[in-house]
């Protein structure tokens, strides 16, 4: 049977890299195809409206601007873009029958399709789950799959496939910078200077070499767009962005990264991708052991 999946989403997305919710983002609205419903007061109510039309609704946006509270339902998800005071999400796609053809990642107990989808969201590489609700052989069992390109008829099973928001790879595959030492308010002490270059005595504990990175607390949430001053970020030469972060979702912007004052010679550039809820930075090893990328919450 065809099942509507009542799946509660977090604004932070899901654990296995399939992002199903995003803040301050929406898609192109086509009034001839999509729907606008006023008077929807919460993200969860808007999500429920999309669930009720699961055969055509691929995603939804809840916009909350003072007295204006609107739910937008999208049949197609095109041109992800910024919006103010809005949150968007996708729902799991309902399909008929049970998944076939993919590898089974796990078989676990579950007493509803909701249980199975929740388990899938938190299982690495899981994209679909089939729940057997009345089978003699598999009563109340969840089968988690890494793919679901085909299905087979099933009288006592229900299936849902995760619907991911299409973002660049670096928004899903990145390393974390979360050392409190690299925050702009952390000053070096006792002549210890930390840096972001492998092989140095004072390499920051969260630095893993050239890669894509995301800043998280207590380091901050982004690289500052101003000079943090000498000795801050627990390093002699703090690194900052001489420019602005990208505003368009999913687009990588090349910006100048400066270590020390703006008068430094030949400053390198880095790539910054706006991932909606955070920025992904393409960061190389620094040229010196006492240079580090700073983090800020502002």
Overview of this structure, please?
Helices cover 6% and strands 34% of the residues. It starts with 20 loop residues before the first strand and ends in a 5-residue tail after the last strand. The protein is globular and about 70 Å long. It is mainly beta. A hairpin with a 4-residue loop joins strand 17 and strand 18. It has three domains: 21-91, Hepatocyte Growth Factor, CATH 3.50.4.10; 95-161, Hepatocyte Growth Factor; 167-298, no CATH class. The chain has helices at 43-51, 113-121; strands at 21-26, 35-38, 59-65, 68-74, 81-90, 93-95, 98-100, 104-109, 128-132, 141-145, 150-152, 157-161, 175-177, 211-215, 237-242, 252-259, 269-274, 279-283, 291-293.
What keyword list fits this structure?
298 residues, mainly beta, Hepatocyte Growth Factor, seven-stranded mixed sheet, five-stranded antiparallel sheet, 2 helices, 19 strands, 34% strand, globular, disordered N terminus
Distance between the termini: 50 Å
Low-pLDDT residue intervals, each spanning 5 or more residues: 1-15
Principal-axes shape call: globular
Cα gyration radius (Å): 23 Å
Q: Note the main sheet.
A: 7 strands, mixed
Helix count, DSSP H or I runs of 4 or more residues: 2
Question: What proportion of the residues is helical, as a percent range?
Answer: under 10%
Decide which structural class fits the backbone.
Answer: mainly beta
**Number of domain units:** 3
- Report the sheet-strand fraction: 25-35%
As laid out across the biggest beta sheet, the strand order is: 13-14-18-17-16-15-19
